[in-house]
Amino acid sequence: MSITNKPNKVEVKLDFELNTIMKIGHIVNWLNAENNYVLKTKEEFALEDFIKGSVHNELDRMELINEIFCELKTKPLRSPKNVKNKFKEQLKILGLKQQDLSEMTGISNSELSIVLNNKRFISMEYFLLIWISLDCPSIEKCFELETVEKK
């Protein structure tokens, strides 16, 4: 790896294993094919675009996870007001209903309603039951920080 400073930018040259570059190349080719045939766009991604985008996405993801963690750490464990679960969204993505999740987890429909509607912060036991039932989505797909508008 080498780093070169430029005005307002830093150029980084990385060494990758050939196998890694081939895997990234396959993904880039797939994305370009999807853009051309499915989305009907002429936008072409380059290997460099994919790597830059991946780094930016991962930084954004880590920032969100850190914000959620800090929010949980600074509030009483039973009432982190700004952290909301997004399990309803995951149910929609998977084509499941609340009743399906109730049957999968053994959590009563009324308890599940309270949790899914963020009326009470989720316990670790319920989180694990729901998380596993929803195929273990990433943490940023499970929680969000509710933005509080200042008056």
Topology readout:
Layout: E1 2-6, E2 9-13, H1 18-38, H2 47-74, E3 83-85, H3 87-94, H4 98-105, H5 109-116, H6 124-133, H7 139-142, E4 143-145
Antiparallel strand pairs: 1-2, 3-4
Structural descriptors:
single chain, 151 residues, mainly alpha, two-stranded antiparallel ribbon, 7 helices, 4 strands, 58% helix, 11% strand
What does the model show?
The chain is 58% helix and 11% strand. It has 151 residues and is mainly alpha-helical. It has a two-stranded antiparallel ribbon with strand order 1-2. It has a two-stranded antiparallel sheet with strand order 3-4. The longest helix has 28 residues. The radius of gyration is 21 Å and the shape is extended. The N and C termini lie far apart (48 Å). The mean pLDDT is 84.
Short note summarizing the structure:
By secondary structure, the chain is mainly α.
| Range of helix content | 55-70%
Overall shape? extended
The total strand number stands at 4
Distance between the termini: 48 Å
**Classification by helices and strands:** mainly alpha
Give the strand content: 5-15%
Number of helices: 7
Strand order of the largest sheet: 1-2
The residue ranges in which pLDDT falls below 50 over 5 or more consecutive positions are none
Work out the radius of gyration.
21 Å
SSE string: EEHHEHHHHHE
Let me know the average pLDDT: 84
Largest sheet: 2 strands, antiparallel
